[in-house]
Amino acid sequence: MKGDRVEIVVDAGSGTTRTYEIEATRAGRRVDIAQTRGTVEVSEVTRGGSAVRTARFLAGRVIALVEHPAADEPVAEEITPSLRSV
Question: Least CB-packed of 5, 17, 32, 37 within 10 Å?
């Protein structure tokens, strides 16, 4: 769903961290997370199931994986008035 977002905090070595963010940028897309064989893969996926954008991280370096789901109901700032011709 547009607005789904995942933040990934990764240990960059020598006590520093880096934060990456993957977001569903268009309507109908979603963000999927997969953990396989020592890697964490975060992908933006279309309705048809094809990956648009993918990020892979070593599981041993991932400190935090924070999911931010899109709001079910739009907030007042997200509502755009529609123009109707009478």
Answer: 37
Residue with tokens 């094809």: 50
DSSP string of 35-72? Answer: EETTEEEEEEE-TTS-EEEEEEEETTTEEEEEEEPPPS
- The region that residue 77 occupies, defined by phi over 0 for left and psi between -120 and 50 for alpha, beta otherwise, is alpha
Residue 68: other Cβ atoms inside 10 A: 13
SS3 9: strand
Q: What is the pLDDT along the chain (86 residues), one digit of tens a residue?
A: 666 788 899 998 888 999 998 888 888 888 889 998 999 999 998 888 889 889 999 999 999 988 888 766 655 555 555 665 55
